[in-house]
Write a structure and sequence with these properties.
Layout (H helix, E strand, L loop, with lengths): L2 E10 L2 E9 L5 E5 L4 E8 L5 E3 L7 H6 L6 E3 L5 E3 L2 E4 L2 E4 L7 E3 L12 E7 L2 E10 L10 E9 L4 E10 L3 E2 L3 E3 L16 E4 L3 E2 L13 E2 L11 E2 L4 H5 L7 E5 L8 E7 L5 E7 L3 E5 L7 E2 L5 E2 L6 E5 L14 E2 L5 E11 L1
Antiparallel strand pairs: 1-2, 2-3, 3-4, 4-5, 6-16, 7-10, 8-9, 11-12, 12-13, 13-14, 14-29, 15-28, 17-20, 17-22, 18-19, 18-21, 21-24, 22-23, 23-29, 24-27, 25-26
The structure holds beta-D-glucopyranose.
The site of beta-D-glucopyranose has 8 residues, from strand 24 and strand 27.
Pfam family, one: Aldose_epim
Subcellular location: Cytoplasm
Family: Belongs to the aldose epimerase family.
Length: 349
């Protein structure tokens, strides 16, 4: 039988943050806190059935409030970069907090990752589930409209961690939600992910300028270090990637599947542990970020995290899409429902 339990993880200004543990029949386990819907740990079996925690994280709430490079968090209202933090909607101009060089990044000073969500744990068939909800007030982080957002986590009996988002708003606004776990399939404290093999279902990517804002073009990955059309060791072209404005792999891939269609986006395999992760989404883009900016962070269980010790595969709309008309739009009109499903699906080989 799948199981769900909860306990207190800490308090923010007197308000408790709960930690929910979802466990399936084979013992795989996800721990999620109500601050940001953050995935604090994820235990998955290796080829010999040994469970290891394969996401980077902290052992205490304080670090999630002060030090976190979005470890395990759900990101909103708008993931990734918006040039100058500016956009225009229905004739009104909006200025978001500029919190990443000249850009707005990942929802602002206090994005959804910093909010305490309401939570309800339950089981459904062979899945252990957690439904998280949050109401973002009109004007929060300068985004228009009151937004109701829901993130449902399901840990299935077949070792799939699904996240189903939906959102609606009482005014026209923008939304682009994603999940920001840093995975290391060899175990969270195993050093660089350079020996992982990665395959991304994308023939094209969105090149960026010196501020990491897409130029608006789509370019073929063929002949570049971003060619992951066949499985490739991440370390193979890491030096090439480090010469870029992005200081390593930190790129948005334009997925081959039709937009809005749910399908495979990427697969990662760690030969040492035999763990494999397949990522599915219905969004058009996938940001692959190799933890370039993680430096000397004290993690849970005595771990020390340094550059490239994890990888993020973040399904989303393209960066700065609100200002680039040729990219799929992140505009959500009053009365419409935004939906986004992600699956991180685990197996061994
Ligand atoms: C971005 C990186 C950024 C990181 C913050 C990623 O999603 O692509 O550029 O530094 O988030 O932790």
């Amino acid at each position: 039988m799948p199981q769900v339990s909860s306990k207190e993880f800490g308090k923010v200004q007197g308000k408790p943050v709960e930690l929910y543990t979802l466990t399936n029949d084979s013992g795989a386990k996800a721990e999620i806190i109500t601050l940001g819907g953050t995935l604090v740990s994820l235990y998955m079996p290796d080829k010999n059935g040994k469970l290891d925690d394969i996401v980077l994280g902290f052992g205490n709430l304080e670090q999630y409030l002060t030090d976190s490079p979005y470890f395990g968090a759900n990101i909103g209202r708008a993931a990734n970069r918006i040039a100058g933090g500016k956009f225009t909607l229905e004739g009104s101009e909006y200025q978001l907090a500029v919190n990443n060089g000249p850009n707005a990044l990942h929802g602002g000073e206090e994005g959804f990752n910093m909010k305490i969500w309401d939570a309800e744990g339950y089981t459904s068939g062979d899945s252990a589930c957690l439904k998280l909800t949050y109401t973002s007030p009109d004007g929060e982080e300068n985004y228009p409209g009151e937004m109701n957002v829901e993130a449902v986590y399901s840990l299935t009996g077949s070792n799939e961690l699904k996240i189903d988002f939906n959102a609606s708003c009482d005014k026209t606004t923008i939304v682009n939600l994603t999940h920001h776990s840093y995975f290391n399939l060899a175990g969270h404290n195993s050093g660089k992910i350079y020996d992982h093999n990665l395959k991304i279902e994308a023939d094209q990517y969105t090149p960026v300028d010196e501020n990491m804002i897409p130029t608006g073009q789509l370019k073929p990955v063929e002949g570049t270090f971003l060619d992951f059309r066949s499985p490739k060791r991440i370390g193979e072209d890491a030096e090439e990637a480090a010469k870029e404005y992005t200081s390593g792999f930190d790129h948005n891939f334009a997925l081959n599947k039709p937009e809005n269609e749910y399908g495979l986006a990427a697969s990662v395999y760690d030969p040492k542990s035999g763990r494999k992760m397949d990522v599915y989404t219905d969004q058009p883009g996938l940001q692959f970020y190799a933890a370039n900016f993680v430096e000397n962070l004290k993690g849970k269980q005595g771990a020390l995290y340094n550059p490239h010790c994890g990888l993020c595969l973040e399904p989303q709309k393209f960066p700065n899409a609100i200002n680039i008309p040729s990219f799929a739009s992140p505009v959500l009109k009053k009365g419409e429902i935004y939906k986004h499903s992600i699956s991180y699906s685990f197996s061994t080989e």
